[in-house]
């Protein structure tokens, strides 16, 4: 499923829910960037997601897909400025993205990736079976 068609599907399902008077459940999940001896990696705080949602989502797959989508300039900046000490202080790791998960739609809605003063939006289907994200 392409990013645009997934975005359209999410928007359509949200509009239907709103028209029916149902407020969709949105869970915002902070995503931080860490550096350790193996290199940089994205990290989703499972405690922020909650056990029920964490069991429904392949968190490691989302982290991998997110990391592969991060802008090169963001990764270069992190490589230059993050030290391994950040990994020992996870509460102080830089938050680089926020994922919005819509359990009612059974999809990860999207991810806003911060970069300087701009933000990039990436749609990541939960179970698309392809490489659209």
* Tally of alpha and pi helices: 6
Number of domains: 1
How many β-strand runs? 5
Radius of gyration: 16 Å
Chain-averaged pLDDT: 66
Structural class: alpha+beta
**Helicity range of the residues?**
25-40%
Biggest sheet character? 5 strands, antiparallel
Which strand order do you get reading across the main beta sheet? 2-1-3-4-5
Shape: elongated
The secondary-structure element order is: HEEHHHHHEEE
The span between the termini is 9 Å
Q: Approximately how much beta-strand content do the residues carry?
A: 25-35%
Low-confidence stretches: 115-119, 122-133
List keywords for this structure.
single chain, 133 residues, alpha+beta, five-stranded antiparallel β-sheet, 6 helices, 39% helix, elongated, disordered C terminus
Describe this protein's structure.
By secondary structure, the protein is of the alpha+beta class. It has one domain (3-122). The chain is 39% helix and 29% strand. The chain has helices at 3-19, 46-49, 51-56, 59-69, 72-81, 85-88, and strands at 27-36, 39-44, 95-102, 107-115, 118-122. It starts with a helix and ends in an 11-residue tail after the last strand. The relative contact order is 0.23. Mean pLDDT is 66; it is low at 115-119 and 122-133.
In short:
A hairpin with a 2-residue loop joins strand 1 and strand 2. The protein has six helices and five strands; from the N terminus they run αββαααααβββ. The chain has one domain.
Layout of SSEs?
Elements lengths: L2 H17 L7 E10 L2 E6 L1 H4 L1 H6 L2 H11 L2 H10 L3 H4 L6 E8 L4 E9 L2 E5 L11
Antiparallel strand pairs: 1-2, 1-3, 3-4, 4-5
